[in-house]
Design a protein that fits this description.
By secondary structure, this protein is an all-alpha fold. Helix content is about 80%, strand content about 0%. The longest helix is centred in the N-terminal third of the chain and has 33 residues. One of its GO terms (cellular component) is plasma membrane.
């Protein structure tokens, strides 16, 4: 087996462990906050959004820095630092008793939350451009598989062992994944290729991005998509509790989370391969429309099973968005700058992770959780409109040249 394939499958396994570990806590985050005191539903919803989103504030600033360091020194050391940092943060979350301490830990975690994005940069840099969509789709299957099983595992553990032990077990799982990186990953050196040119400054890299209209548009779309995806995430467990009278709310919330992941898992690689064949921008347009069509009916469900089915179908639609966006950037960005450019794209996604929960918290606090699904549908249509406009502008520019 080649080094590239070995690295791909090792990172697949590690991303599975990391994603599963990090999503274990998502279904019961709002429930965990409720144990800190006798708070109103509006208070819990608002702080769920703040605590969930604050991680991505620091991550927004750190992602390009990690990418630039990775381009220069390699991505393996960054994976190790991020893995151990995430594990430490989650471990101490299990010993918090007030929202402010949990808020600060999530804020700190944002500094080292780049394990999965860094793994994407590592694999993208070693992958030929013509295979980028399928390979990155394969890598995302590891992340999606972890996202699929993580909430279910977390829900079962929270109902069985309590919240504190779930945080502890989660942190130990991330340490295990970091150990696999230390002893398993072999990063090929591209020093000669990277040193052939003098490395551009950060300002020059930003100017390069701004000069390419479609590159800017794709990053903006990544922001809008993430804002849409994360607007409902912190509130889903509360929405599930409104649909069922069962006692095991944490487990059922995990089931609703996992339905999206399972749908995502089924088609992620196929969407990436289709992007290799017909173009990543075209596939992305199809997926944005499908996502908008499938998210709105979730506001109208009256039973949990209806929500689970719609979340499953929704997952099938959104599964190909990240591989198509990343593969497009892989094609457009110069080889020696791919880590940093992907880092800026990740910053846009992290910004969406911040804005999304804030939007969800604000709208749910004033208009109810159902309103968030309508807002999310609008965001996907907005992203579709931006992509359509950018493609038309690019085609017009090409006609002017030729």
């Amino acid at each position: 087996m080649s080094i590239e394939k070995r690295n791909l499958w090792i990172m697949w396994i590690c991303n599975f462990i990391i994603a599963a570990s990090m999503t274990m806590v998502l279904p019961f985050l709002s429930l965990y906050i409720s144990t800190f005191g006798d708070f109103s539903a509006e208070y819990v919803q608002r702080w769920s959004g703040f605590i969930f989103g604050v991680t991505f504030v620091t991550a927004f600033f750190m992602s390009p820095i990690w990418g630039r360091i990775g381009d220069k020194y390699g991505f393996k050391p960054i994976l190790i630092i991020n893995g151990l940092g995430i594990a430490s943060s989650i471990f101490f979350m299990g010993f918090m008793h007030h929202v402010h301490g949990l808020f600060l830990l999530r804020l700190f975690m944002g500094i080292v939350t780049g394990f999965i994005p860094t793994s994407v940069a590592l694999i993208a840099k070693q992958t030929p451009k013509k295979e980028a969509g399928e390979t990155l789709g394969t890598l995302q299957m590891g992340t999606v598989s972890g996202t699929l099983f993580g909430p279910l595992i977390g829900g079962v553990m929270a109902d069985t062992f309590g919240f504190q032990y779930t945080f502890i077990i989660t942190s130990l799982s991330i340490v295990l994944a970091t150990g696999v990186v230390i002893f398993g990953i072999v990063e090929k050196s591209h020093a000669g290729r990277n040193e052939a040119k003098e490395r551009p400054s950060r300002t020059a890299v930003i100017q390069l991005i701004l000069q390419r209209r479609m590159l800017v548009s794709v990053m903006a779309i990544a922001f809008i998509v993430q804002a849409g995806l994360f607007s409902i995430q912190p509130l889903l467990s509360l929405y599930v509790s409104e649909l069922t009278k069962a006692d095991s709310v944490a487990f059922l919330s995990g089931l609703a989370f996992s339905a999206t992941g399972f749908g995502n898992l089924l088609l992620t690689r196929k969407w990436g391969k289709l992007g290799d064949d017909i173009g990543y921008d075209r596939v992305l347009m199809i997926l944005l429309v499908l996502a908008a069509v499938l998210i709105v009916p979730q506001a109208l469900v009256t039973d949990l099973w209806q929500l689970v089915i719609l979340r499953f179908l929704f997952g099938m639609a959104v599964g190909g968005m990240l591989p198509c966006i990343t593969a497009y950037i892989r094609i457009e960005a110069p080889f020696e700058l791919q880590g940093e450019v992907l880092g800026y794209n990740q910053s846009f996604r992290f910004l969406g992770n911040v804005v999304g929960p804030l939007i969800g918290g604000i709208f749910s606090g004033y208009m109810g959780i159902s309103s968030v699904f309508y807002v999310t549908g609008f965001l996907f249509l907005l992203a579709f409109g931006l992509l359509w406009w950018s493609m038309k502008q690019s085609q017009a520019k090409i006609r002017e040249i030729y």
